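Hi all, a correction to my earlier message: I attached the wrong file for 7-carboxy-7-deazaguanine synthase. Here's the right sequence:
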Amino acid sequence: MSAVHPATDAAPAAQAERLKLTEIFLSLQGEARDAGWPTVFVRLTGCPLRCRYCDTTYAFFGGEWWDIDAILLEVAKHGVRHVCVTGGEPLSQKRVIGLLSKLCDAGYVVSLETSGAIDISDVDTRVSRIVDIKTPDSGEVERNLWDNLPLLTPHDQVKFVICSREDFDWAYKVLFEHSIHERCDVLFSPSHAQITPRALADWIVEARLPVRFQTQLHKALWGEEPGR
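and the right structure:
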């Protein structure tokens, strides 16, 4: 992780502008609409969900407190336009709303990766909200906040992680029941521990779904290496 800039516990005003971070790092965006772009990732600590396929369990606990202004300075050091705020579940820290707006004000192309279990209505509309709708095999399907769907715009994205044929059929039904593909881009991603990328690709083609197939580019390049 990059050098930590902890906030001062003695200053109440400063505390109001702090977030707990697991890491900040530069890599290629491996998923979604901006896949392939050099991107600074700001990974916040903590998540109220426990998805069975989670690959960032190390972000559940620990972390360091950072002033929001220090986060902006660290992001600027990397010299790229794209910033992705992720987790954990970044919206579990309410002050992330301020960070997202400040990143937009600074001229970055900003995306937010969120579980879809927390209200997205306060997120700056300049941010591309990537909402991960939880399928039954995630173990967290009951946490989906369906009220988020009417808030989606063409600037946003929705992701389904597919673990089985049953997940695929469920996602197919949800996609059309809520006309999600008419609101924004929709991404179907395979959970590699459960199904092969080829199987999911074949199902999408066979069903002629109006969705984008995706795999995790960063894992194809660097495997499970942290900070990549």
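Sorry for the mix-up. The helical segments are 12-15, 68-77, 96-105, 165-177, 197-207, 217-222.
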